[in-house]
């Protein structure tokens, strides 16, 4: 077999693989929503205090395990409430920000999540429901829209499972805080 035939065969396999990836990406929904729910051994007021005050996010962040040198910065005069914004810089996980867009005291917090270099933004939300005197059913959801390249990213990096794992870790970190 000549080198030319080998290279043409490899090129054909590469094109076939790219076509399969494009087809699979076209089947990924444009809108995504990834909820993770866990009952935490804390009152909903305690949980809300940790998620609604942006200066406390570093204490439970599931992403600090990827880069302990992440630098956090409050980008607003307020630490909570609509408009409060937290930014971070990380060589390993990227630079981004979370800006609170809405909340209901003790029951819900919504934020906009953005990363440098990405055109799309995602929404994050915490929903809290008391299921006992010191038990809070906490649902952490990430939702947004996937452009075509986002769909490819979704498949290649197993995005949904990665987010679910990180959210579970973050909720476990909240549960473990004293």
Short description:
By secondary structure, the chain is of the alpha+beta class.
Q: Report the β-strand fraction as a percent range.
A: 25-35%
List the helices and strands in order. Answer: HEHHEEEEEEHH
CATH fold description: Alpha-D-Glucose-1,6-Bisphosphate, Chain A, domain 4
What low-confidence regions span 5 or more consecutive residues with pLDDT below 50? Answer: none
CATH class: Alpha Beta
Biggest beta-sheet profile: 7 strands, antiparallel
Rg, alpha carbons:
20 Å
User: Structural class of the helix and strand makeup?
Assistant: alpha+beta
Q: If you average the pLDDT, what whole number results? A: 86
DSSP E strands, number: 7
Q: Gap between N and C termini, in Å?
A: 68 Å
For this structure, what is the CATH homologous superfamily? START domain
Strand line-up in the sheet with most strands:
1-7-6-5-4-3-2
Report on this structure.
This protein has a single domain (22-176), classed as START domain (Alpha-D-Glucose-1,6-Bisphosphate, Chain A, domain 4), CATH 3.30.530. It contains 5 helices and 7 strands; from the N terminus they run H-E-H-H-E-E-E-E-E-E-H-H. The chain has helices at residues 3-26, 44-52, 57-60, 148-156, 159-176, and strands spanning 31-40, 71-74, 85-89, 96-104, 108-115, 122-132, 135-145. A hairpin with a 2-residue loop joins strand 6 and strand 7 (135-145). The radius of gyration is 20 Å and the shape is elongated. The N and C termini lie far apart (68 Å). The mean pLDDT is 86.
